[in-house]
């Protein structure tokens, strides 16, 4: 099977080389796609930067990439990014991102600025339909100065669509319909949107998404394999299908001069037949459950910018999120409820100071506070695995970004945070403070190169579940709470460079490249220790992770290529052993060509992952090579005198060679070959 995959990759590479050469010769006068590294992002610093110019390591998933992917889950959008590996397997409700070898609640996840803090063993956190999203930013590395507790590994920030994103300058209303299908899980995807604006004072968008899928089909090779001693001859991963309904309603009021008030409500509602541990296979410690996952999010955001004031540019974001997971055991009718309620506010202002003729400083300062309240019930009684508890986080932050001429940018900042967590039923409480400083320098000796250096400290307070969990873990094994857990701390040094070239080989081409090396020391790393009769969590005094990651993009009016790579190593210094949760060395290559005369785009993605056996043969994972192909067609005015404008068709084949493979950080194999197709039509007036 491996030989088949590698042979196929050689064929695809040869075909791509021919396509690139011929496309260069046949290039027509059409606008090329902007490199993703040229996308504007505010996630890392709250100030606007191109991803390639930021001292932080950032990747951006654009709207075009979301459309091309025909994704079922947010994980489908993140898994090809350097430094990111998805864990939890093919079941969407179990998906979790891992950044630079750290996952779970060591990553801050936000949607339109609202924190998504749900944390329960074996369950996911990405309760968002990708069809609602406009852009996804991923920041790799410590980010507590801006994002507070939990940003030990990085940030995943998602932004939903607005009416302005779908309407032209002179258009007042419109609609969009989309249908999609995946053959692997027989997934039927639907989306319906309506949007409009009233003059310059008000706009709104309403979106509804539906999904219905069956169990995931594994590779043909799976028939000869087993998981935890269990083999499934029908190639289907049991209990991996689901039914999902999601919606978004967002309004923006701009009737006040220079002010914008945005209000939104979104709901994620997913029903599935799964296991008590959806990130693993069935064994003696698991059982079937009927699960419903629901998340409601309310957001109210105020912005002021008159374009003239140097002192006043405030943003206030108020949000409330309610996450509920209910499970029923159909055999015993046992009922389990796990709820997390989060309410928070983040308010900041930007002030611009002119220090000299060639020096200016952007001062960003603000406060944030949020409150988590979790409740767990098992057949009406308290669920000791998800203890009733409350956590309060309050912080103030300050960042000074100084631009000296056009060559230097120096950024210094810090965040002071206080937290208090309490489980009254257990009579336990923990509170502490933390300071998270950051300092970065960017130097541009020439127009086409920038050099970056960054120092940052970050921290993560123990979660309420980590501090207060008790009760049965599995038969014969019980949780022992450890309310004395210390917060995790990280100290990171990063160095990198960015390269930007235009009109390199042909007219209107662009070459972008960005690479980063880093070393991060961790203290009080929280780990779970499973003994023969008890399970508890404790702190590992010292550990470190270092590595390298890079992105390279070359785009023209027709051919394009994008390359991503990461290599990480981690060590538990206390016990002198390698960290097992470090992802494999991975190279991802995407290439293809646009055909402007046909309004067509063709592409191929190849992911090559090395073997990971640094933690010993028992926990080793095999390397793999997986290839996908895709095509997008957006007919312009030349088709049927413009009657097809507004139509878009996307098609693709994932895992073209039906490769059996399993990611190092997953307990389950990935899906087999998958043919997928989507068609959308939009009209605006």
From TrEMBL:
**InterPro entries in the cross-refs:** Beta-barrel_TonB, Beta-barrel_TonB_sf, Plug_dom, Plug_dom_sf, TonB-dep_rcpt-like, TonB_box_CS, TonB_haem/Hb_rcpt, TonB_Hb/transfer/lactofer_rcpt
Sequence ranges assigned to domain TonB-dependent receptor-like beta-barrel in this UniProt record: 263-656
Question: What is the annotated signal peptide range for this record?
Answer: 1-27
Keyword Signal in the entry? The reply is yes
Predominant location: membrane
What are the GO BP annotations of this UniProt entry? siderophore transmembrane transport
| Domain (TonB-dependent receptor plug) ranges | 53-155
A single Gene Ontology CC term? cell outer membrane
List the PROSITE patterns: TONB_DEPENDENT_REC_1, TONB_DEPENDENT_REC_3
Q: How does it sit in the membrane?
A: Multi-pass membrane protein
Q: Calcium: is it a keyword of this entry?
A: no
Q: Where in the cell is it found?
A: Cell outer membrane
Q: Name one Pfam family in it.
A: TonB_dep_Rec_b-barrel
One molecular function GO term is: heme transmembrane transporter activity
- What are the protein's UniProt keywords? Cell outer membrane, Membrane, Receptor, Signal, TonB box, Transmembrane, Transmembrane beta strand, Transport
Q: Where is this motif: TonB box?
A: 39-45
The similarity annotation says: Belongs to the TonB-dependent receptor family.
Which PANTHER family did the record assign?
HEME_HEMOPEXIN UTILIZATION PROTEIN C (PTHR30069:SF41), TONB-DEPENDENT OUTER MEMBRANE RECEPTOR (PTHR30069)
Q: What is this protein called?
A: Hemoglobin/transferrin/lactoferrin receptor protein
Question: Highest lineage ranks of the organism?
Answer: Bacteria, Pseudomonadati, Pseudomonadota, Alphaproteobacteria, Rhodospirillales
């Amino acid at each position: 099977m491996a030989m088949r995959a590698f042979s196929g990759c050689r064929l695809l590479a040869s075909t791509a080389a021919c396509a690139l050469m011929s496309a260069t010769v046949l290039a027509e006068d059409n606008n090329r796609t902007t490199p993703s590294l040229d996308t504007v992002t505010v996630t890392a610093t709250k100030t606007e930067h191109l991803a390639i110019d930021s001292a932080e390591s950032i990747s951006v998933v654009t709207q075009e990439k979301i459309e091309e992917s025909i994704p079922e889950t947010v994980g489908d959008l993140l898994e090809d990014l350097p430094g990111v590996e998805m864990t939890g397997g093919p079941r969407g409700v179990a998906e979790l991102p891992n950044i630079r070898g750290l996952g779970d609640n060591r990553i801050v996840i936000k949607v339109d600025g609202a924190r998504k803090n749900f944390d329960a063993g074996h369950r996911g956190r990405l309760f968002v339909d990708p069809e609602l999203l406009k852009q996804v930013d991923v920041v790799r590395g410590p980010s507590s100065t801006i994002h507070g507790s939990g940003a030990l590994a990085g940030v995943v920030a998602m932004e939903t669509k607005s009416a302005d994103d779908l309407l032209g300058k002179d258009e007042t209303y419109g609609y969009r319909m989309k249908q999609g299908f995946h053959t692997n899980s027989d997934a039927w995807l639907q989306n319906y949107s309506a949007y409009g604006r009233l003059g310059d004072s008000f706009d709104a968008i309403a979106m509804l998404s539906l999904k219905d899928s069956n169990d995931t089909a594994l590779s043909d090779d799976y028939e000869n394999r087993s998981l935890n001693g269990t083999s499934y001859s029908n190639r289907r991963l049991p209990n991996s299908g689901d039914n999902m309904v999601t919606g978004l309603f967002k309004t923006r009021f701009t009737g006040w001069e220079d002010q914008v008030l945005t209000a939104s409500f979104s709901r994620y509602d997913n029903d599935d037949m799964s296991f008590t541990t959806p990130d693993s296979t069935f064994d003696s410690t698991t059982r079937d459950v009927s699960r419903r996952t629901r998340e409601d999010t309310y957001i109210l955001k105020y912005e002021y910018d008159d374009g003239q004031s140097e002192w006043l540019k405030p943003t206030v974001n108020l949000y409330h999120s309610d996450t509920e997971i209910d499970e029923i055991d159909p055999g015993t009718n046992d009922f389990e409820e796990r709820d997390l309620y989060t309410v928070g506010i983040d308010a900041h202002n930007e002030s611009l100071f002119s220090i000299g003729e060639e020096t200016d400083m952007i001062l960003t300062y603000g406060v944030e506070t949020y409150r988590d309240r979790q409740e767990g019930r098992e057949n009406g009684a308290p669920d000791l695995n998800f203890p009733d508890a409350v956590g309060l986080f309050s912080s103030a932050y300050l960042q000074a970004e100084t631009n000296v001429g056009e060559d230097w940018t120096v950024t210094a900042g810090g965040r002071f945070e206080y937290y208090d967590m309490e489980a009254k039923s257990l009579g336990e409480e923990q509170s502490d403070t933390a300071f998270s400083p950051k300092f970065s320098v960017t130097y541009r000796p020439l127009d086409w190169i920038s050099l970056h250096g960054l120092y940052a400290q970050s921290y993560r307070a123990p979660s309420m579940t980590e501090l207060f969990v008790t009760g049965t873990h599995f038969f014969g094994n019980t949780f022992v709470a450890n309310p004395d857990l210390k917060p995790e701390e990280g100290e990171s040094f990063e160095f990198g460079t960015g390269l930007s070239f235009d009109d390199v080989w042909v007219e209107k081409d662009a070459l972008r490249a960005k690479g980063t090396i880093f070393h991060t020391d961790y203290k009080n790393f929280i780990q779970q220790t499973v003994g023969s009769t008890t399970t508890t969590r404790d702190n590992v005094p010292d550990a470190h992770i270092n590595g390298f990651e890079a992105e390279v993009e070359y785009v023209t009016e027709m051919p394009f290529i994008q390359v991503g790579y990461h290599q990480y190593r981690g060590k538990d210094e206390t016990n002198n052993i390698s960290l097992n949760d470090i992802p494999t060395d991975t190279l991802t290559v995407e290439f293809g060509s646009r055909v402007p005369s046909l309004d067509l785009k063709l592409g191929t993605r190849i992911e090559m992952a090395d073997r990971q056996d640094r933690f010993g043969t028992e926990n080793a994972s095999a390397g793999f090579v997986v290839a996908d192909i895709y095509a997008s067609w957006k007919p312009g005015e030349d088709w049927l005198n413009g009657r097809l404008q507004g139509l878009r068709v996307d098609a693709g084949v994932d895992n073209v060679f039906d490769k059996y493979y399993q990611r190092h950080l997953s307990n389950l194999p990935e899906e087999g070959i998958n043919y997928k197709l989507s068609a959308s039509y939009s009209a605006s007036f």
